[in-house]
Amino acid sequence: MPELPEVETVRRGLQPAMEGAKIVKAEARRKDLRFPFQKDFVARLEGQTVTGLGRRAKYLMADLTSGDVLLMHLGMSGSFRVQNDDGNTTPGQFHHPRSETRTHDHVVFHMSSGAAIVFNDPRRFGYMKVIARNALEDEPLLNGLGPEPLGNEFDAAMLARSCANKKTSLKAALLDQRVVAGLGNIYVCEALYRAHLSPRRLAAKLATKKAEPTDHARHLVNSIHSVLNQAIKAGGSSISDHRQTSGELGYFQHSFQVYDREGEKCQTAGCSGIVRRFTQNGRSTFWCPKCQK
């Protein structure tokens, strides 16, 4: 499933085509994706101008002049492409040809700019919903989310407070969207490696007895910031379905230091450890047992 860097990459690709443009026509070519479309889904979109395109955790959020917000989630295999008047997209350096099969083009937004925004989702795990802006705080999909890891409020003190009384592993805590929003398996593995912290470490050890942040908490927050910013700059990681809106591959997977590198030598200078994999909370965890303590 796409994580925060992949979703942010998609947002940046859609922004020039969507912001400031009107949705002249909206097409929902089936009754549902992961969830059924609202009966007034199309009606609440057509004729509305997109005033801003943001992101919350792994959700894309398009603000509309009506006061509504279009909430979009990519699911497991969802992707957007921007189609121009001539029917072509503009490939970039890391272009990967998309399938010519359009049977999975389930939603299309025809914009006043002449571009068409096409959502393709073979597995249909993605979803879209129109929500009134003043009702977002009560929206079940959003109201349990923690802080944005790249937001100003997320720092070592906040992470320490969130983990102070947790009896779970550090990795499990970071994957909990109520603790921090948008992180997934790949970037948690990478951040823990950069911070030299074991994924098995007790999450509560990030805080002192007074719930103040330890040095480990500070190092971890810096590592989270570093790996996410680097991944966004690289266009995300393309290890399965992720493509940018132009069809480009993300290429952060070439910078993985532990993820999917089982059996390889640890890249930490002076460390003779070997990257290992084990199953943790149903997910594969990659780490160096020698330098991650």
What can you see in these coordinates?
There is one protein chain. With 293 residues, the protein is an alpha+beta fold. The chain contains five helices and ten strands. The protein has helices spanning 4-18, 156-163, 170-175, 185-194, 215-233; strands at 23-28, 50-56, 59-64, 68-73, 79-83, 105-111, 116-120, 127-132, 276-280, 283-287. The strands form three sheets. The protein has a four-stranded antiparallel sheet with strand order 1-6-7-5, covered by helices on one side. A four-stranded antiparallel sheet has the order 2-3-4-8, with helices on one face. A two-stranded antiparallel sheet has the order 9-10. Helix 1 (4-18) packs across helix 5 and helix 4 (185-194) crosses helix 5. 38% of the residues are buried.
- Mean pLDDT rating: 88
Helix-strand sequence = HEEEEEEEEHHHHEE
Calculate Rg over CA atoms: 20 Å
What is the CA-CA span between the terminal residues? 28 Å
Q: What order do the strands of the largest sheet run in, or round the barrel if closed? A: 1-6-7-5
Largest sheet: 4 strands, antiparallel
Proportion in β-strands: 15-25%
CATH superfamily of the largest domain, by name, is MutM-like, N-terminal
- Uncertain ranges: 90-99, 237-251
- Counted up, domains total 2
**Structural class of the helices, strands and pairings?**
alpha+beta
- Helix content percent band: 10-25%
Number of strands: 10
For this structure, the CATH topology of the largest domain is N-terminal domain of MutM-like DNA repair proteins
Q: Examine the secondary-structure arrangement and name the CATH architecture of the largest domain.
A: Alpha-Beta Barrel
Shape: elongated
What is the CATH domain class of the largest domain? Alpha Beta
